[in-house]
Specification:
single chain; alpha+beta; 4 helices; 20% strand
């Protein structure tokens, strides 16, 4: 995984600030491949509660992450019970690495 411990902690802290009870915070995509460089930070965030303004929340979250991580290369997929599950959601869940658990492991 090509994220520093600092980046992982910041991502989880920011996401949990917006969604205190996030079910999953996953990193997926090219940043999981240690053999290559570059690529954006692809995040899949699943929450327990329905989201009434998912697009606005997503934009705000991306802006906050970009400021904190000093990069514009961030993409976020949101999923909640009231949103349609798309093929990309399934791919992210099947291939992603759980950042919530990574932070817990760093803290042990």
């Amino acid at each position: 995984m090509r994220l520093s411990d600092f980046q992982v902690r910041r991502i989880v802290a920011i996401v949990e600030g917006v969604f205190p009870h996030a079910k999953h915070i996953l990193l997926f995509g090219s940043r999981l491949n240690d053999e290559i460089s570059g690529g954006d930070i692809d995040l899949y965030i699943e929450v327990f509660d329905e989201l009434s303004h998912a697009a606005e929340i997503r934009k705000m979250l991306i802006a906050e992450l970009r400021l904190a991580l000093k990069t514009t290369a961030i993409d976020v997929l949101l999923f909640s019970p009231n949103l349609d599950e798309l093929p990309m959601h399934r791919i992210a869940k099947e291939t992603g690495v759980c950042l919530n658990q990574t932070v817990q492991a760093l803290d042990e």
